[in-house]
Structures are given as C-alpha cells and as structure tokens.
Design a protein that fits this description.
This protein starts with 9 loop residues before the first strand and ends with a helix. Helix content is 33%, strand content 16%. Helix 3 packs parallel to helix 9 and helix 4 packs parallel to helix 5. Helix 7 links the parallel strand 7 and strand 8. A 7-stranded mixed β-sheet has the order 4-10-9-8-7-5-6, sandwiched between helices. A 3-stranded antiparallel β-sheet has the order 11-12-14. A two-stranded antiparallel ribbon has the order 1-2. The protein is an alpha/beta fold and 365 residues long. It binds 4'-deoxy-4'-aminopyridoxal-5'-phosphate.
C-alpha cells in the first residue's frame, strides 16, 4: 500500500470505523497522470527485485499441467515441505498463504476480535494497522526510538503494554527503516509476554530475513506464542507469484489453519515457489548483488545531498528535509517516471522517501 501519488490512488471502502487505505496505483494510472508512457514508469516503491529467478521458465514446464483442471492440493504439501526444509523445521510448524500479506490477514482473523488491542511500533509496515482496524480491534501505536538509535523498538514502552495486547506486530529487518532489530530487543519482548497468564501472539515479520540472516525461528519451542512470517516476494524475486509462509508452534499454526482459505495459492504459484525454496542459492546471490548495489546507490544519493540512513535491505530510507521538501522531490521524480514510496504528514518519516534498489541502469536514471 502507499500514500502517493494522491491523484491516482484507487480507494477501497474500508469496514466501518477502520483506517482508510489505498493500494499502489498501476503504471498505466501513473503514466496517464504525469503524461508518460507506461513503459517509462519505474517502480522504486515496491521493494521487489529487478529480475525474476532464471529457473521460473523451466519450473513452468514441469508436469503439473495435467492437474490444472483440478483445485490445488489444499494442504499444499510440496510447498509446505519446501518451506519446512528451507527453514529447518517440521512441516507441522508451517502455514502457507497467498503472500506474507495473507498470513498477516490470517493472524488478524484468528487472533484479533472487535475491541482487542494490537501493539504497532511506529514507523513500520502499514498493513499491521490496516488489518487490525479491519477487525475493529484497537491500534496501540508505540513510537520507535529515533534515527540516532536506529529506529529500534522502545522495549520498556512495548513491554509495559503487553498485558493489554492480543497481537504484537514486529518487523525485522523493519520496513521502512531498513534495519534489523538490535540483538536482545525481540527476546526481551517475548520473555515479557511469556510471564503473562495469557500472552499476546508476537508476530515477527521476517519478509527481509535473507538480507540480514537473523531469525526468531529457533525460539518457537521456548516461546509458543511466537510467529515468524516470511515471503518469496523479496530475496527470492517472486512478488508476482504471491506466496508467503509462517513458522511457529503447532498450536499457533493450527489456529491459523482454521481460518486459512483452502485454495488461495494457485497450483502454478505453489509449484514455482516450492522450486525456489528448494534452491535458495539464487536468493542469496540476489541478496549479495542488491546489497552491493544498495551501497552504490547510497553513495550516489549522498553525493547529491540526499541523506541515506544506514540499512541492510533492498531499499533505502532517504532523509530529504521537511515534508514539503519531500513532496516537491516526489513530484519531480514522478514527472520523470520514478515512483518513490512517500510518507504522509502524520508519519514520523514525513521528510523521507523510501527507494527500492533496482538494476544499475535503473538506479542510474
Ligand atoms: N511484510 C513486509 C514487511 C513487507 O514489506 C511486505 C511487502 N511490501 C510484505 C510483508 C508483503 O509481502 P508479500 O508480497 O509476501 O505479501
């Protein structure tokens, strides 16, 4: 989802009382708004990878074609086994979904009821707030520490609110700040929750896991109220396939399974993403290449006076100045066909833009 460009956002009707939200406009809509050709629009706002994996064409010719008249295997055994092997867990500790976004939606459906509270550290991925408000649950926004502290979680402020919470939405590395949570912060929150008679579900969104390598997966036995959420959209370069998965204790996975639709992942997507998870070398090469490219892009942006905050992901958070300066920069970029991720006037990052690291030619433009 996005807050820009305002003129071409597509509004969806939210449930009564929930946040108003919009999805990213299409290339065609942006082109029409700014007098460009759709092929001249470059997405620096979606945190995807520049190229799909080389094995996709071959995976698409694998012999699942004769089964396309049937529904997918609702247990998604091949995909679940591939995710289990990739993460080193048992298949019973995995749930799969149509993107990490569907996993987050399952969490909201299974763990949030009307009037419940979810803790949302700000700034973070906006879907946590959207999904919370769709369930008519309350958002307890807990500001993160500032830029000088790497936008880390305010652990005492978080732990003080755990007793009221049904869900705690954490993200590491965090989107949009691009940093992994400092060692110990997530475990301090897990330990605080474990002392409660009825602990909240602690969600750790690891969509950008491959960019740092730190994971909470090994803690799932010690903390049964933990869920790690992953995707093939980022390091695996398969955002169009729409597959995500989550790892947690059997009790949490079973509860999510009860609200999971039987066929939201297509047979094609399940097979291609299983193939990707079975051969993760491509993802690791992609991470290495984009990390080097991030450093090049950061140096170039700094040369032009845009202050890149240090980060480890396939996007950079750039401080431009105040909100009006960031809006002017956005307008100029959009007129050139470059779509940045922007932040609204109420967001603590209102003077920033978030830019995806793309190919060298695209970054150069
Ligand atoms: N979590 C975070 C932190 C993300 O940045 C994104 C993608 N923008 C998602 C989840 C959604 O990923 P998916 O494409 O798997 O739905």
């Amino acid at each position: 989802m996005t807050e820009q460009p305002k003129a071409v956002t597509l509004s969806h009707q939210p449930v009564a009382g929930s946040q108003v939200y919009t999805w990213e406009p299409s290339n065609a809509a942006i082109a029409a708004r700014y007098g460009l050709r759709p092929e001249d629009v470059l997405r620096f706002d979606t945190n995807t990878s520049p190229l799909p994996p080389p094995f996709v064409a071959q995976a698409l010719t694998d012999p699942f074609e004769p089964t396309l008249n049937e529904y997918p295997d609702s247990a998604y055994e091949e995909l679940t086994a591939a995710a289990a092997a990739y993460t080193g867990v048992d298949p019973s500790e995995i749930v799969v979904g149509a993107g990490a976004d569907e996993i987050l939606d399952l969490v909201a459906k299974a763990f949030l009821t009307a009037g419940a509270t979810a803790l949302v550290p700000i700034p973070t991925y906006p879907m946590y707030g959207v999904l919370t408000s769709q369930r008519a649950a309350r958002i307890a926004a807990v500001p993160r520490l500032g830029a000088d502290d790497g936008f880390a979680l305010d652990v005492p402020a978080m732990t003080a609110r755990l007793a009221d919470a049904g869900v705690v939405w954490l993200c590491s590395p965090n989107n949009p700040t691009g940093r992994a949570e400092p060692v110990g912060n997530i475990e301090a929150i897990l330990a605080g929750a474990a002392e409660l008679p009825s602990p909240p579900l602690i969600v750790v969104d690891e969509a950008y896991f491959e960019y740092g390598g730190a994971t909470v997966v090994p803690w799932r036995h010690r903390y049964p109220h933990l869920l790690a959420v992953r995707t093939v959209s980022k390091a695996f370069a398969l955002a169009g396939i729409r597959v995500g998965y989550a790892v947690g204790s059997r009790s949490v996975i079973e509860r999510l399974g009860r609200v999971r639709p039987p066929g939201s992942i297509s047979t094609v997507s399940a097979h291609v993403s299983a193939r990707a998870l079975q051969s993760p070398e491509y993802a690791l090469d992609n991470v290495r290449a984009l990390s080097a490219e991030r450093e090049w892009l950061s140096t170039q942006l700094n040369t032009f006076g845009w202050m890149v905050t240090p980060g480890i992901t396939n996007f950079v958070l750039v401080r431009i100045g105040d909100h009006a300066t960031a809006e002017r920069a956005t307008d100029a970029l959009l007129h050139a066909g470059i779509v940045p991720r922007t932040f609204g006037p109420a967001n603590p990052l209102r003077g920033h833009l978030r830019l995806t690291v793309r190919s060298r030619a695209e970054n150069d433009r």
